[in-house]
Amino acid sequence: MKKLIVLLGFLPFITSCKGQDKIDLFQLHLNETIESLIDFDDIKRIGIETVEYPFCLLIEVSDGINYTFDGIDLTGQKVFFQIDSEMLKTDSLTKQGGGHIDMEPFRDKTALTAILKKYTAANTLYGIRIEMKTEKLKKQILTKLEKKYGKGIKNPNTDNGLYWNLKEANKFIFFAPDYDRLIILNNTDLSKTCYWDIMNGTIDFGGCNKEEYTKELLKNAHPKKERTEKLAVRIDKDWNLNDFVVGKTTEQDFLSSSTNQNFERMIVIDGSKASAKEISYNNEGKTLFFNFSVSHDVENKKNNVLKGYSFQYFKKGDISFENGLRPGISFKDAIKLFSKNEIKNYEDLKFSNYIEIQKENYTVTLNFDGDYLFSGIYIK
Fold first, then answer.
1. 8 A C-beta contact, residue 62 and residue 44
2. N vs C: which end of the chain shows fewer Cβ within 10 Å?
3. What pLDDT, in 10s, does the model give residues 275-315?
4. Taxonomically, which superkingdom (predicted)?
């Protein structure tokens, strides 16, 4: 009987050996090397994804088939690894005001090392994010968390979110079922009083100084320089801005032009389809915007075509028109420059503070301020 007992005692160990290729994310210290946690044969990408979190480098594994969470199979769920990157502690991404994605696949250790070097990033992770697409998985994971750590604290920013502040373990856990995410972080090098991301909002662990926290997140932001020169804009009789033609000018044309000074590129994401919806460029003062349609390959700039533009706050630019308009012209005088048939909202002008000019493939909207003086233009 003794031998039988000994053999039975070894059975769980043998079983666990057979499943050693599956990594239990719940058991991680969150300081492991990246290469020890990924299978280079998996479909994965590394880079920036501001919808998840803008201040770190992310590795996205498209299928968590090689991972478990305390025995829960994660096949079919995305898994994200967060990596500290000094380069990304800046406002260059967040001030774009939308979802910015710049991720690339990598196949081997050499490629990974090169990417980490490019982003001045660590070769270890400090956090994980697990996708929870089903209600069953959410309940299973919550049960595991509550069994080990007790009931979580209600996140005041979401309907069903919870969090755990594990001070002795130096960990934050954020259960965000409303956004299909579980997030676990090693907070050794993070703020102990504040936390923010898009899916959890701002959480105050006690004594949170939001201004100081934001400064720390953006510690490598470049100081803004005051610009003395005004942006020069000329709009011709066909509403082409600096010779950019709606429906013809490509993104590459814009990038190669003299107008392209201090503009930032932003990819607008369609959340329901998880795909690029359009590409937008805005200048430093956020007064001039260009919007481009997206081709099948979002990075093929020769195929992305200008959909429209917007210029507001004329006082911040040097703008001229070839059709008689001028910044500050009155609403009544502007109406006189167009025929009744040209004005799309002619019947509503007595109630409006804007004029819509209908063109073949787009609409030109002329905006007027509280004093009914011409102050902005929008084409789409």
1. yes
2. N
3. 567 888 988 777 899 999 988 777 888 999 999 999 988 88
4. Bacteria
